[in-house]
Write a structure and sequence with these properties.
It holds the Pfam family SNase. This is TNase-like domain-containing protein. It comes from Sphingobium fuliginis (strain ATCC 27551). With 122 residues, the protein is α+β, with helices and mostly antiparallel strands. The protein has helices at 48-61, 90-96, 111-115; strands at 4-6, 11-15, 18-21, 24-28, 31-32, 66-73, 79-85, 88-89, 101-102. Strands 1, 2, 3, 4, 6, 7 and 8 form a seven-stranded mixed beta sheet that branches. Strands 5-9 form a two-stranded antiparallel ribbon.
């Protein structure tokens, strides 16, 4: 899948930080978005409004061409990737809009910190 291009029709948005492409779950690198209430882990706060807004934000930001650059697999076996849509880094966009929070421990190789210029000012 490295450097692969996907059409938006082969892609669905699961939540504000995860996509499904051809059935494969893809986590956006370096961010945590609110979990969808139905998928919320026990003991974790998952406000319905913020999870819905985060998911809709990602959905509306997606436009062709979509490029997925796999980086690693997470503890659940999902592909962690840098996802570009219309030339924009979707993790950076979700952070910029306040729809996710930056998790340095999830930013393998500080790739996201290098691309999201506003993160270097923190």
């Amino acid at each position: 899948m490295i450097g692969a291009l996907f059409l938006a029709s082969a892609l669905t948005v699961v939540d504000g930080g995860m996509l499904r492409v051809n059935g494969e779950p893809i986590r956006l690198i370096g961010i945590e978005a609110p979990d969808i209430v139905g998928r919320c882990r026990k003991g974790k706060a998952c406000p319905e409004d913020s999870s819905r807004r985060s998911k809709e934000s990602l959905k509306h930001a997606l436009r062709d061409p979509i490029t997925i650059v796999p980086v690693a697999r997470d503890a659940y076996g999902r592909t962690v990737a840098i996802v570009y849509a219309g030339g924009l880094n979707m993790s950076c966009e979700q952070l910029r809009k306040g729809m996710a929070v930056y998790r340095p421990a999830w930013d393998m190789g500080r790739r996201l910190a290098r691309e999201c210029r506003f993160l270097t000012r923190r």
